[in-house]
């Protein structure tokens, strides 16, 4: 849910926590008899901008733009973060590393909305265990539950 508030740092923390949860599930089960499927139901409109250095913190600031002001490496196409990077009186805000280091910082957006929207990107599907071979490539979102039912031998696949 952090993406909807354009809390990019929190969204990355959520992703890391989710990875730990998947790892714990793998530790508690056997790949011989447990199918684990990991996917998302939609993408978001966050993007990685510019040319950050390899050792640069992804939640930090990129180089200077043409107006000699820094911009965030991460930003959103729309959402409530519009006014954290822009104001009508001064234009683009002078962003500081200390500001963007805060987990409550709302990353800048191009268009102001009450909440960030979903994106139209394909989402990845990862699987391990029995029938994991069913889950490779791109799928219509509604096919994934059907493939899980087939792997489990339930519903119309019983």
TrEMBL record:
InterPro entries noted in UniProt: Alkaline_phosphatase (IPR001952), Alkaline_phosphatase_core_sf (IPR017850)
Keywords: Metal-binding, Zinc
Binding site residues for Zn(2+): 4, 41-42, 118
Enzyme class: hydrolase
Requisite cofactors: Zn(2+)
Record-level Gene Ontology MF annotations: alkaline phosphatase activity; metal ion binding
EC number: 3.1.3.1
Cofactor mode of binding and number, as noted: Binds 2 Zn(2+) ions.
Pfam families: Alk_phosphatase (PF00245)
PANTHER family xref list: ALKALINE PHOSPHATASE, ALKALINE PHOSPHATASE-RELATED
Protein name (Swiss-Prot/TrEMBL): alkaline phosphatase
Organism: Drosophila simulans (Fruit fly)
Lineage of origin: Eukaryota, Metazoa, Ecdysozoa, Arthropoda, Hexapoda
Gene that specifies this protein: Dsim\GD10663
């Amino acid at each position: 849910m952090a993406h909807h508030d354009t809390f990019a740092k929190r969204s990355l923390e959520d992703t890391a926590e989710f990875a730990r949860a998947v790892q714990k599930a793998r530790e508690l089960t056997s790949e011989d008899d447990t199918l684990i499927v990991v996917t998302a139901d939609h993408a978001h409109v966050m993007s990685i901008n510019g040319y950050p250095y390899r050792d640069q913190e992804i939640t930090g600031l990129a180089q200077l733009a043409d107006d000699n002001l820094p911009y965030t490496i991460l930003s959103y196409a729309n959402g409530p973060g519009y006014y954290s990077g822009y104001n009508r009186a001064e234009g683009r805000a002078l962003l500081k590393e200390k500001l963007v280091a805060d987990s409550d910082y709302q990353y800048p957006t191009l268009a102001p909305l009450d909440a960030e929207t979903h994106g139209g990107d394909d989402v990845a599907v990862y699987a391990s265990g029995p029938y994991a071979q069913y889950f490779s490539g791109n799928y219509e979102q509604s096919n994934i539950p059907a493939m899980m039912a087939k792997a489990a031998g339930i519903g119309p696949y019983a």
